[in-house]
């Protein structure tokens, strides 16, 4: 199985779990060229769900500990994910690797809510505050025709159980404060899920031009706000 492409693995995984996926606004998906896919995030199934929906291999950055835990490491790397470095080196490693992938016309996937929704269970219709790193990445990449595609995953039927104690994961990444709290890492398995594609937005030359000095903060906020607003509206419509 691991010798297959991440897209094939994702499709096989969803077939094996019996997950029913309903894709909306498929016509908005760019089929070629570099793309930064931005999505909400609640489950380990999000990466294969998004790949099966978009029909392209997506290179996701994943948490450092996922590259340290045996078996999990093999699973995430077979899906094309790249585990981030330990705390302190994490951000620069993310930018370097993601820009390299975008420059070779690949798709990079980001979850701007961070790890919190994965570690602490949240209801399907809740969206956390977006971190702005993906907007900085899009503007720094200097990749022609780079498109940002907001995508919403809206679970309409799922099962939730407990995977592992959070403090056990601190053995693999002691620098992560989320693993210092009591409780268990939730395991969310989608049974039926809506995937809604937002309107793509191409990074313009003027946006890159404004990404300097005092203007940089405003253009980063603009891109972040656009994606969060688009995903929030699609989530409201998708969770029925």
Task: Describe the protein's architecture and organization.
Keywords: Acyltransferase, Transferase. It comes from Aerosakkonema funiforme FACHB-1375. InterPro entries: Plipid/glycerol_acylTrfase. Residues 35-156 form the Phospholipid/glycerol acyltransferase domain. This is 1-acyl-sn-glycerol-3-phosphate acyltransferase. With 240 residues, this protein is an alpha/beta fold. It has one domain (6-238). It is 36% helix and 23% strand. The protein is built from nine helices and eight strands. It has helices at residues 6-17, 46-54, 72-78, 90-103, 116-119, 133-140, 166-169, 205-210, 216-238; strands spanning 20-24, 35-39, 58-62, 82-83, 107-110, 147-165, 184-197, 201-202. Strands 1, 2, 3, 4, 5, 6, 7 and 8 form an eight-stranded mixed beta sheet that branches. Helix 3 (72-78) links the parallel strand 3 and strand 4. Helix 6 (133-140) crosses helix 9 (216-238). It starts with 5 loop residues before the first helix and ends with a helix. The mean pLDDT is 87.
Strand content: 15-25%
Helix and strand pattern: HEEHEHEHEHHEHEEHH
Profile the largest sheet: 8 strands, mixed
Would you count the extended β strands for me? 8
In round numbers, the mean pLDDT is: 87
CA(first)-CA(last) distance: 35 Å
Structural class comes to alpha/beta
Low-pLDDT residue spans:
none
Total domain count: 1
Count the DSSP helices.
9
**Approximately how much helix is present in the residues?**
25-40%
**If you compute it from the alpha carbons, what radius of gyration comes out, rounded to the nearest whole angstrom?**
17 Å
Structural shape: globular
Pfam family, one: Acyltransferase
InterPro entries: Plipid/glycerol_acylTrfase
Protein name: 1-acyl-sn-glycerol-3-phosphate acyltransferase
GO molecular function: 1-acylglycerol-3-phosphate O-acyltransferase activity
